[in-house]
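Re-run requested by the PI after the first attempt was lost when the workstation crashed. Everything re-entered from the original request form. Ligand of interest: cobalamin.
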Amino acid sequence: MPLDPSKFPKAKKNILSREEVKAILRGEGKTRPAQVITPLLFVPEEQPERQEFMQNLIEEYPDDAVFFEYTRPANFGKPGDRYVWCDVEGADPMLKLKPGATIGIDEKTALDWETIQKITRDIPDPFAPKSLVQNFFEDDGRYRGVFWTRLSFERLWHFRGMSETLMDFYLNPDEIKDLLDRLKHVLMRAIDRASSDEYKFDAIAFTDDIGMQDRPFFSEDIFIEFLKPHYKEVIDYAHSKGLDVWLHTCGNVEPFIPHFIEMGLDVLHPIQKYTMDEKKIAELYGDKICIWAGMEVQRILPFGTPEDVRQEMRFLMDTFYHPGKGHAVFSSGNRLGKDIPNENMRAFFEEMYEYGEKIAKEGRSGQNESPATTKDIHP
Amino acid sequence: MDQAFYEELILSVTRGKVKDVDRLCREALENGVSAFKILDDGLLAAMQIVAERWKNGTVFIPEVLIAARALNVGLAILEPYLVLGNQKPKAKVVLGTVKDDLHDIGKNIVGLMLKSHGFECIDLGVDVAPAKFVEAVKESGAKVVCMSALLTTSMIHFTEVVQAFKEAGLRDSVLICVGGAPVTATFASQIEADIFEPDAVTFAEHLERRLA
Ligand code: B12
């Protein structure tokens, strides 16, 4: 399907085609860098006070690659349900809640291993819902994929609670491996459907936050023992079905990057600022994996000036994008929250396009530095 | 008990071996060792090692959590024997994640580190409204309030808590401590917090010095 510009009547930019984006991912990109924000990071409905502003902005600056959020299975259901994470009768902790009590997101919703063993092994079934994805629209010539959240660690703690999962690596290693094994099945069926003639997607994107501000959640040994085999099987399977694999993981994940590369992960998001040294990562790994660079949302986007935002974008592009090769696409590091002023939001989109055009045409003229190197940006 | 005993107890805590900790603590008590000595030279010495490794970046969350769990098992056994003689209990601390914020891993680690330094922690959980912090201080007589925030959109609630303490006339009788990934020293001083530290271990040490 060739790209049809008439589909983007308000766009202030030319849109990249599927082939152009693919070339960027492979390190053979001849165009400007692609904008890939996705509906997971940009949620106008979440900000009713400026929903219109946000919607206009995204129509002026549409993504160059489209991701559709997956249709989320319900957490709990009853025996026989096909699109739920847990079909064990009465397992939902909310049912046992006393009136007036509130429930946290972590340990209190965690399931014990006994309940987990009882869950039907092949649910949720990604072929069960009418549509695999939300807000689907037909191919318009852009690169397309499904965004399926929670690859491994995040899905483990969806079941077990975060603290429990972290301890389970030591205390219940076999149960953890078995749970990952079940979850593999779901992911493979999702890949089957995403790559089928029904969707013909180019990619599947996952989230799996395994980094914290100053270090990863767990050691490299734990990653190698538990998560790496799971990641690898999923990545290999996606590749066998012709899908690229994109991964979002917050925080410092430096020790894991060589493993991501070894496993053949195609795209990595966001190299979170203040948790890793972007230049070092670009130097060491920039030619081995496509970086989905995400502008930082803890300080620069909410509390910098519009000029700081522009300068940070120039810094990111100079650091990660190789004119004539590509190997980088751009977005925010996490959800664009309501604490980001309108001017900064606009500066972010404009500069992403304008500076991208400039370096694609003229090549890079040196390295812009981050505004954070000369001033302390904070609330 | 000899050196080898404490080495074994320490190792059992750092490796999270709950059953061994249980057995060793009972054994020592039966042999007439004071609960305070088992606590100081065994359980807390082990947590010190974990804290040191955390600071050096050689351990991660799982190792801290399994050690803390083992520590708690030991503490439960020793508790009945920890009658306070000339040992003064350290300050009570009220701890919580601020309103609109559900992140609790960091807060829990802060709680563990404070506990392993002998502080008594009153954990209010997550999404804690300003009035609840004040109420807890009134009820417990705590001298320290610790707030955690992981979101730039929730850390503004620190200010409201500070304000709530002012309004209750309690601002000068509590030390207000703040932390969490997006919090910086500049921000902490802007909102007139008393203590900020970027990590839990440094914080527990800081608080101990401050209250010494
Ligand atoms: C795990 C996590 C989650 C989990 C939380 C699970 C749980 N039980 O806590 C889940 C998935 C639920 C989650 C949800 C969200 N998250 Co979140 N999350 C994280 C993540 C990956 C790690 C946080 C963590 O646990 N760190 C580990 C602990 C040990 O570190 P820590 O909390 O910083 O604590 C240490 C120190 O700061 C200090 N400390 C902590 N508290 C205190 C208190 C005092 C007094 C002191 C002295 C010290 C201190 O001691 C600790 C140990 O040394 C961070 C990434 C990051 N870079 O931090 C994002 C992050 C915090 N999340 C983020 C976002 C955006 C969200 C969501 C809005 C996402 C969404 N799209 O819905 C929601 C918000 C939910 C809500 N209302 O709170 C953003 C925040 C951005 C911003 N603008 O501020 C971050 C920074 C990710 C990013 N890269 O942008 N998240």
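Saved to the shared folder this time. Chain B touches chain A through 30 residues (CB under 8 Å).
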